[in-house]
Amino acid sequence: MARHLDLGIAGENVAQKALEDRGYKVVDRNVRLRSGELDMVAFDGDELVVVEVRTRSVGKMAPPETTVGPSKLRKLVRTGRWYVLNKGWEGPWRIDVVAVTVEGDKNPEVEIFRDVTMGLIEQ
After folding, report:
1. 82 lies in a domain?
2. How far apart (Å, rounded) are the C-alpha atoms in residues 25 and 17?
3. Nearest to 94 by CA among 49, 51, 54, 52
4. Which domain holds residue 63?
5. Residue 54 lies in a domain
6. Which among 27, 38, 70, 101 is least surrounded, fewest beta carbons within 10 Å?
7. What CATH number is associated with residue 65?
């Protein structure tokens, strides 16, 4: 497996633990739908959360959270809507981004950006 894929899988594992430590309940990972892929789906209380995980090594040009641009965000909203529709979810939902930064053997740094659409998702 390519090194960047290994880094991505490790980042998702770190992200899941960080989310669970903060009270999220992860219910799906690597969900593939016609409209795209969702890294994770979790519940934060009674709110469904679509989670995009971005993992980078120190020294890359941009921090991981800045790599989710408008195009990716539109795709996440579209795929999230498909997920919500297919699961019959009628409650509130949002999109969070988990940024994982890895530096050698140090513990990865994790930052969670909640509701990156700032509440603009139509419920």
Report:
1. yes
2. 10
3. 49
4. 3-113
5. yes
6. 70
7. 3.40.1350.10
Q: What are phi and psi of 104, to 5 degrees?
A: 55, -130
Structure tokens at 73: 């965000």
Please state the domain count of the chain.
Answer: 1
Burial 22-54 (b: 16+ CB within 10 A, else e): eebebeebebeeeebebbbbbebeeebbbbbbb
In this structure, which long-range contacts are made by residues 17-25, counting pairs with CB atoms below 8 Å and at least 24 apart in sequence?
18/98, 18/110, 18/112, 19/51, 19/98, 19/112, 22/112, 24/49
Position of tokens 């969670």?
Answer: 112
Would you give per-residue pLDDT tens digits along the chain (123 residues)? 445 557 678 899 999 999 999 999 999 999 999 889 999 999 999 999 999 999 887 765 566 677 787 888 999 999 999 999 999 999 999 999 999 988 878 889 999 999 998 866 765
For 5, 57, 58, 66, the CA distances from 15, given in Å and listed in that order, are 15, 15, 17, 17
d(CA 94, CA 105): 33
